[in-house]
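Please produce the structure of this protein holding fe (ii) ion.
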Amino acid sequence: MTDASINARDKSTPHISGLTEAEAAGIQIFEKPAPGSWTESFGLSTGPVSFEDDYDPEFYEDEKQAVFRRSWLNIGRVEQLPRNGTYFTKELQFLRTSVLVIRGMDGEIRAFHNVCSHRGNRLMWDENPSEESSGSCRQISCKYHGWRYELDGEISYVHNAPEFFDLKAEDLALPKIHCDVWAGFVYINLDKEPRQTLREFLTPTLEKFETYPFEKMPRVYHFETEVEANWKLFMDAFQELYHVPYVHGKVTNAALAQTGVDKVPQMIPYFGAYGKHRLMTTGGAKANKGVRVRRPIDALFEANFIGTDYTPDIGSLGDGVNPAGIENWGVDSWQLYPNSVIIAWSSNYWYTYHYWPLSPTRHRFEWTVGFAEPTTIRERLAQEHALVMMREGILQDANTLEATQLGIMSEGRTEFYLCDQEVALRHLHEVVKADVDAYRAEKGK
Ligand code: FES
Ligand SMILES: [Fe+2]
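Below is the modeled complex.
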């Protein structure tokens, strides 16, 4: 798929209205699109869906091969490798893989299987071999019998080498993993020969987002947790805003003037499909000023669950934001195939989400926030308060997932109904299923 799959409606029907009285008061109202039009323009059916792909063990096994072993996966950022010799590991136990990412003495970032060529000991780990680690080194040394490797993976020392039989240096180098960097994000691909380069995979429109100044928002906070739900279910929770008045009813205010499509708050005015990826763009805080609850503590700290009230000046946001050109742009949420999300907020901070499968019905969720360095104590306090409130909002989302997982596995119902505002999650499940079907056809399954 290419950018040609951007839905046609965006080009043919202007669906964002001009200014209204409400907008003049800081509230933007979008025209209601024709029912089903996003879904149809994505080339998807509008019928009910099965969520068997979120619990069936056979599907899960094939999904690992068809999706995760064949796609470019984002496993970190360049800031985790600030100097030559710095490294981090990424545990992908569901793929029986531990990845070692290391910046060589030549400055190159490389990825290897984190396994010793001697007797298979895991190479880099700290207290617990199944936990991720990071640090810096001049050589990669095995803790078991002392074999050592250069930072480019070549073998450099074998303890008591004459005792071995026909050792060849080329057989002992660490197995390489395809690795590339885009916009400071470190990607790997576990396929023997990746089907596309990283940049081809990202598509031209998304690739432009590389100019977004992530490096000017380097104050990073990271949270993670394990959730009793299939990884796609949590992606789904952040691919629509239809749930907001209910799941987040305590931090939105239904009594105030409503905005958005159909005057229901938090509807999304633009969806786009770019290859296997999706974009949702909204006015964010700008479109929904009237529907947020502003509690006294939010006023005091000048922040709330969608960020700080102030916007730091970080200069240009590059030429990749708001590719749909919506008025009053507030936020782009890139849903990157298969399992990561990048969100750019117009109040100048960014998020990433990552969803790593652990079993058919369990995954590890990672959330990272990047702020600009605060320049005053007031800004620092606003960031801290925003983080607490954002985390509360995300917990509200996560809290629903285990109930959803149980519900979709119920014998009582096998088909479920998605509205046009849920087009992005319909797209995710369809693309995953298409990849699994292609894999099964290839294997004659
Ligand atoms: S397993 Fe690594 S040196 Fe023996
Ligand atoms: Fe939510």
